[in-house]
Amino acid sequence: MVRKENRLHSPMYFFLANISVIDIFYTTNIVPQMLATFLIKIYVISYTGCISQFFIHICLGSAECLILAIMAFDRYVAVCNPLHYLSIMNYTVCIYLIAGMWAIAITANLPPLFSVCQLHFCGRNTINHFFCDAPPLLEVSCEGSETVEFVNFVVAASMIMSSFSIIMLSYGLIIRAIIFISKTGRKKKTFSTCVSHLIVVAIFFGSLIIMYVRPNYANTAEYNKIVSVCYTMVTPMMNPVIYTFRNKDIKHSLRSHFICHDV
After folding, report:
1. 119-140 core/surface letters (b: 16 or more CB in 10 A; e: else)
2. Of 22, 40, 54, residue with least CA distance to 152
3. Which pTM value belongs to this model?
4. 66 and 163 Cβ atoms separated by less than 8 Å
5. Residue 31, Cβ density class (10 Å: 0-12 exposed, 13-18 middle, ≥19 buried)
6. What does the pLDDT look like over 78-91, one tens digit per residue?
C-alpha cells in the first residue's frame, strides 16, 4: 500500500514499510521451525542451519531495535519541528538511515557469530529452546563459553541500550512538546499515539533487556523460552495493529483499494 498510494509517500510510512519487512523475516526465521517442532515433532536442525538461524535472528533483532529508534526520532522531528520536517527527513536522509541501520545490524553482529562458531560441542547436543539462540547454545557447549558469553553480552547491551536511550529521549521531548499543545483534541490524539508506540517499545525492549543484558545465562532455560516469545512473536504481531491498522491514512488506503477492486 505504501508503494501504491501517493498519500503514503512520506518518511513515516517508508519506515513502517521497512519495519514490516523486518518483522516478516524475523518471524519467518523462527516460527516455521518452532511449528515443525511442536506439531510435526521434528526436533533436528543441522549445525549450519542452527548457526544461520542464530545470525539471522540477532541481525534482524538489532535491525528492529535500530528502526524503532529511527522511527522515534522521526516522530520527534514531526512533532517538535513540523515546519522543517520534510527538509530534515528528506528522501536522501531516509535512505541513509535505513542503509546505516542494516550496515550496523550486520557488522555489529559479526563478532557474536564468530565467537559462537568457536564453541565446542560434545555429547548429546540437545538445546532446551524452540530456536537457536546464544543462551541455549552456551548451555550445551563443552568449553570456551565465557568469552562467547562476554562478546554476546557486550554487543547486545550496546545495541539494546543505545537504541532504547534514543527512543526514551525522543519520546521524552515529544511528551514535553505535547504538554504545550493548546488544542485539547490534537493533544489527546498525539498523546494516544505516543502511548501505543511506547507499549510496543516496552514489550520488545523489556524482554530483550531481561534476556540479554545480564552477564549470566545459566539456569534460566524455561524462563528464557517464555521471554523469547515476547520479542519473537508478540511484538511482530502487535506492530501491524499499533502502527498501521490504527492509522487513519492506512485504513483509508486499504478501504479504497479493496472497494476499487470489488467494483
Report:
1. beeeeeeebebbbbbbbbbbbb
2. 54
3. 0.87
4. yes
5. middle
6. 888 888 898 999 99
